Each structure stands twice: as C-alpha cells, then as structure tokens.
Amino acid sequence: MSVTVRFAPSPTGHIHIGNVRPALFNYLFAKKQGGNFVLRYDDTDVQRSKEEYAEGIAEDLKWLGINPDRVEKQSARFALYDTAAAKLKDAGLLYPCYETPEELERRRNRARALGRPPVYDRAALKLTDEQIAEYAAAGRNPHWRFKLPNHAAGDVFAPERTEVHWDDVIRGRQTVDLASLSDPVLIRADGTYLYTLPSIVDDADMGISHVIRGEDHIANTGVQIAIFNALDAKVPEFGHHNLLTTASGEGLSKRSGALSIRSLRAEGFEPMAVCSLAVLTGTSHAVEPAKNLDALAEMLDFSGVSKSAAKFDPDDVGHLTAKLVHAMSYAEVAEHLKEAGITGGEEFWQAVRENCSTVGDVSKWWTLVTGPVASDVAEEDQEFITQALALLPSEPWDTATWGEWTKAVKGETGRKGKGLFMPLRKAITGQAHGPDLKDMLPLIGREKTLARLS
After folding, report:
1. 107, 124, 199, 326: which sits with the fewest CB atoms below 10 Å from its CB?
2. pTM for this structure?
3. Does CATH number 3.40.50.700 belong to domain 80-167?
C-alpha cells in the first residue's frame, strides 16, 4: 500500500516541540516507507489564522529538515466541506441545534449532579417547527451535530452500546463505545467548520493512508470512523502516540514560548537535537542525538512507544546539541565560521569544538585567539608571570611549545600542577577554563602572548 501521511497544524501561533513530535512521527514513517508527507494548514478559523504563522511553521519545519511533498490550505477547500455537509444533511445525519453554550453547560452540570454522564440528549431532535421558527425569529442560528450511529433503528433517544474497533499502528487493538459520546458539533452557529469535518473530507480526498497523532485523539477516532463511513469514504489506518509533557507533567501549549521551535533555534540548538528529543523521549530507545533524519527514522519503532506520557527536560536539548557539536567535522561548520569572520580554519575548530555547547560558541573562543583579552593575574603571581615571560620560546610554535615552555618554567620556579598552569592560563586567556593551551598557543602566537604576559 502506498503510504501518505499528513501534518495539519493551525497557523494561530508558533509550533513547539510538542507539535514537532507528531510531525516527525508522520514524516519519518513516510520516509521509511517511501511514502509522501502532506503539510496541510488547518486555517478554517479565519479570524485567528495568520499568514505570518503559516510562513513561520514552514520555516521551522524546513530548519528541522522536514520537506513536505505537498502543501495545502483548508481555507481554499470550503466547497468540498459544503458538499460533504450537504450530503450528511440530506441523509438526516447532520441536524440543527439551538442551545447556547450556557444552556449546554447547565445541562451537563445537571447530568453530573444526577450521576449521569454529561452526554448530549439530542433534545434538538424533539423541536417542533414552531419552536424552530421562534428561534429563527429571535435571530438564533443553529449549530449542527452529527448523529452518531449508536442507537437502535428508529429510536435515536435510546443509545445502546455501539463499539468501533481499529488496529492502532502504535497502541494495538482499540475500542470506542459511541454510546458514551455526545453527537459531535461539526458546524458552529456562525457557519464555520470545526476541525473534524474538514479533516475527514481532506483525508479522504488526499488519499491519506495513515493518521498518526497524539493519544488525546483516541476517543475522536471512533467518531471520525463513523463519519468516514457516513460519507462512503475509505477509512485510513490510525496510530496514537503518547504526548510530550514538561518534567512536572504539564501539557505543552503554543503559549509556552520557551519551547517553541523558533526560540530553540534562536538559542543556537541543533535541529537534530530537537528532532531526536521530540521523537525518542518516551520510547524504548535511548535518547541520543541522531546524525540526520534518515538515522532517526531507523531508530523510530512504533512498538517501542510507551503508553505513558513522555516527560522531558528542555535542558536535554542543550545536552544533545553539545554531543552533536563535539562530533562535527570542520567541513560541517566551515560555512558558519566563514560567515562569523573566523579565519582559524580546521586547526582552530579542532582546538575548540570540545568546549562548544553550540556552534555559535566558536565566536567567544575566536576572541580568545584574536583579542582583546583582559588578563587575570593575582598579585601574588606577578613575579611568577615575569619569570615565565623571560622563558617564552622563540617562534615557530606548534602543539609541543606549551609543554616545552611549562617544563622550563617549572624547572626555573619549582611550581607544578595547578600552581603552574592556572596563572599562565589566566594571564594568556583571562579565563580559568577553556580549550587546551597546547592547541591554542600556536593560534594566539608569540606576539599576542608576550603582550598579555607583560
């Protein structure tokens, strides 16, 4: 079977790492199967949807390495949804309801108080023509609900257990009882569509073979299968993965800007660190940085996805980024160094990469090479530095120079260990820690070293 999947974000804000999980699950699954990935903007909410957010989502996905095979906007497909809605209305499966949100909430509260599930009672189906005319005269527009097939023929007011089954590609056999659910609202009172109907129509029209999404949609799946069947549309396969939460167990939101892909990108984190964390957290695979999306696709195994929520620590993005940076070749960073005006070449990168948490950190180490540097020498070490200065070797310098020089200084002063090396490091670099000076000293050169020791 040809695999086609989709990622359908709402362009009402910036995507965060929680959104990236289903995007990558779909993309990697399609990649592994030689299938297609559709980016479909759920922008039917024309008031809240903004083009700038759609552009931002595309930019973030590209940074992550996700390249859609097809891009669609639901706002351009309303005619298809209107046709589907008309078909359901003609079949008597989409019916008008006039309750206000406040009235519905009172009914739900009353049902809870009586120990009954707060399921919609289909009261709208009992309205007379006169009552409907009164609502219309009062300017009250209906919202429209889909009549679930959860009742015996001819008695819609007596729901009976009606099981919908599917073999979830992640969680295995699943069952939803439609009698436990309210008839879903598909069209709002203002005539706009909720997510459900456009999504089903598009999945059918675009030949979506697999719908892979978060476990919070499991109950919805039973409803959506019923609507697929009502529209005589082919039902795709479904897969529901666990959700990412914060370390304290809280759900993620577009409003949690610190975890947006845009902010993670701005902090200099590597895209594969973000991808690896988003995919591997909450699975049986160790959370380690994959080199690229092909490698990450091989790591992803749906059978290893936990059924528990996947808690993660945002600090892990930094840890994975550092691992990736430490393993990068000069060829992988050469363009970045060039753009940053760093001319130290491969020798410089090899000297500093183990001390870089992000590629952007190279700039501070380049400053250590080129200066200016504020030497940090304690008063009690001044005489020692003067002695060391007198023993500074002549050029040319190489990686053996640091060892030769410190050996001579040790012999002259009797200092050793930290008492020998730390004052020299602070005088030359202004810092107590950093890259190995045997590698840095030839890059700094004798002239600048002499100036910093003087």
Report:
1. 326
2. 0.91
3. no
